[in-house]
Amino acid sequence: MSVFVSYSKEDADFANHLASELIKRNNYIWMAKWELQAGDSLLARSQVGITAMDALLIVISKTSISAAWCGKELTALTHELAEKHAIIIPVLMEDCEMPPPLKYKLYADFRKDFAAGLKEALEGIATGAVLEVEDGF
Question: What's the pTM value of the predicted model, to 2 decimals?
Answer without folding.
Answer: 0.78
